[in-house]
Structures are given as structure tokens and as C-alpha cells.
Amino acid sequence: MKTRILPLFLLILCLCALFSSCASFENPFVLLAEEWDDIAEFFEEQQPVESRGSLLPADGADLPLPRALKAQPHTEIIESAYNRADKIASIRRLDDPASLSVPSGEADRTGYEAIPRFADLSASAVSAILAAHGMTAEISYLPNPAPAGEVFGLRYAGSSDENGYYMNPSVPVTLYVSDRKKAAFQPDPGEAGVVYLTFDDGPTEDGTEKLLDILDEYGIKAAFFTVGDEVVKYPDSARMILDRGHTLACHTMTHVYEEIYESPDALIADVEEWEKAAREIGGGEDLPKIFRFPGGSFGIYLDGEKSLAMKEKITENGWRIFDWNSTANDAVLYLRPWGESDYEYIRETFLTSFGRSVKEADGRKGWPLIVLMHETPETLDLAPWIIEQIIAGGFAFGNLENYPESWVFPPQDEEGA
After folding, report:
1. pTM for the full model?
2. Could you report the per-residue pLDDT of 329-349, keeping only the tens digit for each?
3. Which CATH code of 3.30.450.20, 3.20.20.370, 3.20.20.80, 3.40.190.10 fits the domain covering 194-413?
């Protein structure tokens, strides 16, 4: 019996030693990997290489093989307020336009560069995003309702889903960028029924850009009668007015009635300060001399001979003066009737005053329809509605720079601004 127990005991000791040596390794294949040269040499003598399988698991054995990336580009339209599905006609003709979203499964993304979806971004911003992913971008400027410089479409090889674009990194991306806006039609100022949109007391920090986006969508060029102090405060907004082809006009430097209307010389001194500020915005160039009196050319601070003297002084210095004959009263919302909302008041005021202006014009050629508004939040909300009311009436929008002379409304009918 003892002779049988001894061999069994020795066998158990051998097995324990074997497991103890293996336990020192996290993976038994590590040992094989370290001694691979010896093992390979042995097997080379026993079995040809081409007839044996690998003894070690292949790296990434469960990963799919790289697929052939799409090389045929297609064009996608960027979803935004300016590129709604019902406005595809405004995109003009792009090469091979695709739907807004091309479904793509996980397996289809191998080898593609994943780019997050974007909207309402400038060409420089999108180019920077692509560059960060090692992609190159080419720019093609085309007419589009989006603000000038904004990307509204892109052409690339790959696909997309709700999360982003999956692009072939070896194919350059073409960015379709909204070109600088030009009014679709500039009517003859000598004709009847020409409407001129004007905005006083700006620019503002955020409102100016929002308003310019709206005007650009309709291809309208407006006159912004700016206050010099605000131009200095918000130079980027003022510069944007010029860059987008609108008129940066003078509404004095300070808009302080008691100071600017102290005398004709005081008014001119104030206006010259505005010119200095505006010239810096315009890169040193002189701007068209288009002027509007704060409060209008006749009112509490300007009446009778004083009004006449101020007008003569401004005109002598080369300025054209413009009052207005319709308004939205958006700067005096405190005047609205009790129980009427700000929006109701603006809508009703505009319809009433514009209707009166059209009636007074009576179809006369060369009689302008000048609308006064401000960059208030309420006006920004209602501007598309106001513009569409004017369009529905069959009127054309003109650029006040093209009007050849001053236009001052009869004093007895003027309202303050």
C-alpha cells in the first residue's frame, strides 16, 4: 500500500509546482510569446509553415476588415432657418443634392472621419472644425437666403445621420457659402410706391445682427440712423451694417436734445464727432452724408426759425435730411392703450400710419414712403410681418442712398423719434 501512495504523492507535488509556475503569469500565452523563437524553430523542423495554423490569437481578430470608403461626393444642405425643406428652390442648383440626412450604420463608419453636425456657422468656423479633424475645405460662394459668409451646404464623400457627418478623409470638402447680399431689385426713386426702411438710435449689441439677418433674407437694404456714442460702444455691429451693404447714417453723436440744439454751430460740432467715429468704422473712408434730426426736423426743440436755421446749417455742410411718414411707434410703447399688448400696438400703429402715408402719397411719382423703426426686441420679432405686409401691398423696397435730395415731412404732421 505504501508503495502506491508514494507515487501518487509525488504526482500531486508535481501538479502543484506546475500550477504554481503558471499562476505567476496573467496569461499562459505570454510564456509562449517569450519562447516563440525556440518553439518556431522546433515546428519548422517538424511541420512546414504553410501547413500549420497560428498558435497565438490574432491581434484584433474580432474587428471587421477595413471597407472601401466612398469616393463619390454628394451634396447636403445644412438645416437652418434659411434652408427649410419648403425653400429648397432658394438653394439654387447644387451638384447632386442629397436629402438632409443619409442613414449610416455603425459598420459603415470604419475608416471615416466623424465630424459633428453644425448649423448657422461661418465659413471660417467650419473650416477650423474640419482642419481639427485633418480635413481640407474648399469654398464656393453662391446666392442663398442665409447671412453672407454662412455655410449652407457641403459636398463630401461619405454619409451622415442625426449625430454628424462621416467623411472620407482623402476627399476634400467643398463648403457652399452664402454670398454677399445684393438687393434683387432697386427701383427708380423717381417712381411711385417706393418704400424705404429706416432704423434709429442704434447700433445695438445683439439686435443689429438679428435685424440684418432678417433684411438679408428679403434682400432689403435699409438705412441705419446711428448715434455716435453707440457706434463707439458697439463697433462690430456698426461695421456689420457697412459690410452687409446697408447705409450707416447720422443721428448725431449724443442724441442729447438740449446740447445739440443749443445752436446751429453746436449741432454741426456734434455731427462732426459722429463723422470721426463713423470714419473709423468705415476704414477711414467718408460715408454718404445722410442725416436725421433726433425727434424730427420740427418739434418741441425745433420750431419756426430755429428749425429753419438748423436745416440750413446741415444742408450747407453737404448733408441730405430725411424725416419719415410712417412709423411703428416701437420707441414709445408706453403710449399703447390700456389692455393692448406691445405687439398689438406696433402692428396697429404700423398699419394705420403706413396706410395714411400711402393715401397721402396718392400715387405721386418720387414721393417716398419712409418707415421709421428701432432695434427693439418687439420690432425684431415683428419685422418679417411688417416686411411681408409691404410686399403684399405691391410695393418695392429702395435704398435711401439713391434718393437724390432731402425729404422733410410737413411740420404739422410730424411725430417724435
Report:
1. 0.59
2. 999 999 999 999 999 999 999
3. 3.20.20.370
